[in-house]
FMN-binding negative transcriptional regulator
Amino acid sequence: MYLPKLFKTDDFNVLRDIVTNNAFANLTIFNERILATRAMMLLHGTESDFFIETHIAKANPVARKLNLEQEVLCDFLGVSTYISSSWYDHVNVSTWNYEQVQIYGKVEIMTDNELFNHLSQVTQKFERTQKCPMTVDKMDKAYVESEMAGAVGYRIYPTEVKIKQKLSQNRDAANMQRIIENLAESEHEMDQLMLRKLKK
């Protein structure tokens, strides 16, 4: 990640917000060539000892090629939106505002019990808003175990963390106000989420 000082932060609360709200992230490995897959990720722990949990199908090429001796990369994209240069009071280039977290880490394979607990937490998190939540505890244990046989769970312990918030910090007050006004006119959800961040 290109990370100028102006857009860099070490705020764990920012990391937690981005990872928690954008949990379907990229898991990237290198083994003879670059391989990547989308995976549902959960954040555990505190700033001093956090780690990521995820799972993928054993048939996934990433699972087949993952080398436990090498680092992996978990890449989370948070709120992002287009910023048009037509909004400025001067000639400039258009750009994107966005938030991103990259977590490099070493991998440990979960035990069956750890994978079961992980899947329970995943369903509890994402099923809670459903009319009739279907969580692991409501499923037949034999069925869950048969499904688990086709999956592998990973715990990823960070070796390097990068947190980026590119939120027009390089614009003066007048042009920041113009950005805010133009985003306020948009009906797109991402534009409104970015607007709230710029107003903080």
